[in-house]
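pinging the channel bc i need a second pair of eyes. not urgent but kinda urgent?? the chain im working w is below, pasted from the shared doc
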Amino acid sequence: MSLFLTLIFLTNVPSFAQQTALKLTLEEVVNLAREQSIAGKQAATLKKTNYWKYRSFLADFKPQLSLDGSLPSFTRSFIQVQQPDGTIAFQPVSLNNSLLNLSLSQNIPQTGGSIYVQQQLQRFDNFLNRSTLYNGIPFAFGISQPLFRFNQMKWDRRIEPLRYAESNQQYIEAMEQVALDATGLYFDLLVAQVNLQIAETNRANNDTLYTIAKHKLEIGKISRNDLLQLQLSVLNARKDLASARQSAEVASLKLRSYINTQTTTTGQVRSFELVIPDQVRSFEVDLQQALTEAFANRSDAIGFQRRRLEADRDVEKARKENGINATLNADFGLTNRGSRPIDVYIQPQDRQSVILQFTVPIMTWGRAQARTETARANQQLVVQTLEQARRTFEQQIYTQVTLLDMLRQQVKLTTEADQIAQVRYQIAQERFRLSDLTVTDLGIATQDKDRARRDAILALRDYWQSYYTLRLLTLYDFDTNQKLQGA
């Protein structure tokens, strides 16, 4: 953007922004939005939540040490006891049956089972006959292993890291979306401020020209019809000024609310004075590099892999859960009892337990096949959906790369047009003062001048929104040739 355009704008600051106005550039607004906006804070909170979820997932595959039991476990009551002749007698009991169990367990992702070692001590007190007995397991080793069953842990180890990586990239995308939204609000206010500056200038110029026109009417150099046309222009300029001021205040409120900057340190509401970006980035974007970076960095690309794995997982789950299911539980160790705690550890005896539980479906009326085929159909649907999403994504990248280059040229052309229109308007004003230009021609020059100024600002807006959109789509900064990183 030319220095000429910037100087004209800054020397005509709207009246509402002259008192303690906060001067901001586009980059400063984007940084404020990333740091202070509610959307930015929500993205940071979600990132932290996903981090701790992943930490919890990793902890499930580490050894788990736990202590459980019941201490005390006191009972005082009457219980029914069946006698040899079949009758029931209610006998009083007063007892304590406490238990402590210390175990160390470890999941086995490769097989879907788990192993553990444990130590257990049990104490039984009969307060009626004043006796105490101890029972315990000095050491035991056990394993629980599903057979022919779906292994959830194996798939989780493949899917959850992708989900976590996807969430990290989603955070970067969220921050880039904040930048894009802030850019839109920035230019909404900038356009409103430029419109307000135009309206104020037009109102002042029309007042001046109307005064000159009244003098010309007195000396017979213009018609009364031309004077009435200028008078109408004065009224329209005042109406446009009121509308532009209201639009600027609304746009300022929206931007202030988004970047979460409401008041100054003294509690006063502070208006914004936005700086027109004076240049555009001159980097070139290679389409193939943009596609490569997008599929390497975007959460969507990671999501494609995750969803494909989830579809494969669901097929295996449907197939295995519809067949033979079995679980082997085995326990080997030592055990003993006695009247003292130390007796449990003196010459303990062997302890073994082996249990095989199984389920064999015999007649399901085609339910197993239906579930498996449904999972396979869903798998095919996922593959087709992902392929379509991939192609759409590639089209978005291609469109944005070509659009950015076109908009860069558009900014240059509209800037030159704005310079020409401003100079032409100045010439038109001088010619009108010298009675060498009609009111109609002056009105055309005014409209061209205003249109050129707005087109220049709108071209800047389109360029910068396209710039941040490309960053969002690729998570790559082509200006510095660096991947975008999360804070």
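so Residues 35 and 41 are 7 Å apart (CA to CA). and Confidence is low (pLDDT under 50) at residues 1-18. — does that match what u expected or am i reading it wrong
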